[in-house]
């Protein structure tokens, strides 16, 4: 199957699949998050350390529209990284930015799986994290490395920049809450 995918998809197509995979995954979250939070908010707050619970409590009451607005902000970042990476693929100038986005999506799978294990139940996004994001990000890593577009050194040196997702996420959620009033 991998050999077949390699033969039909150019590397640029593989890069363009990142925003598509993101949307598939986040649609599951958008569709399920408000109802799921309404039924599980207290349970989530109980398993969190007290400081984390106080800090995250406001975002546990977002409605679907607010969450979708936050997702749209993150989609803009991922789409920007993709456009820049694809248009400069010959030089690799923006591949580090793109790699950080792939890293975030790959690591995000384990966040979803961990949440489901911790709560002992379904959590919004866990299905598409495992079925869409994990295979996509694994294949993207493989193709980027196999093509020589990135090296193992670049792959690992961009990992610390994953921490930049923290201010991006909080900004996106803040904007979602401000743009869409409850």
From TrEMBL:
The chain crosses the membrane at residues 67-87, 93-110, 122-142, 154-176. Keywords: Membrane, Transmembrane, Transmembrane helix. The keyword Transmembrane applies. InterPro entries: HXXEE. This is HXXEE domain-containing protein.
């Amino acid at each position: 199957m991998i050999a077949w995918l390699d033969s039909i998809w150019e590397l640029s197509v593989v890069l363009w699949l990142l925003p598509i995979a993101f949307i598939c995954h986040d649609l599951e979250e958008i569709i399920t998050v408000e109802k799921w939070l309404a039924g599980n908010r207290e349970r989530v707050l109980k398993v969190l350390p007290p400081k984390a619970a106080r800090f995250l409590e406001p975002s546990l009451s977002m409605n679907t529209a607010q969450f979708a607005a936050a997702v749209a902000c993150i989609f803009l970042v991922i789409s920007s990284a993709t456009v820049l990476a694809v248009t400069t693929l010959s030089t690799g100038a923006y591949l580090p930015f793109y790699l950080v986005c792939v890293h975030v999506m790959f690591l995000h799978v384990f966040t979803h799986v961990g949440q489901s294990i911790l709560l002992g139940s379904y959590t919004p996004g866990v299905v598409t994290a495992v079925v869409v994001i994990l295979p996509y990000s694994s294949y993207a890593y493989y193709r980027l490395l196999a093509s020589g577009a990135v090296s193992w050194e670049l792959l690992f040196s961009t990992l610390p920049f994953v921490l930049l997702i923290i201010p991006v996420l909080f900004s996106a959620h803040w904007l979602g809450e401000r743009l869409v009033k409850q």
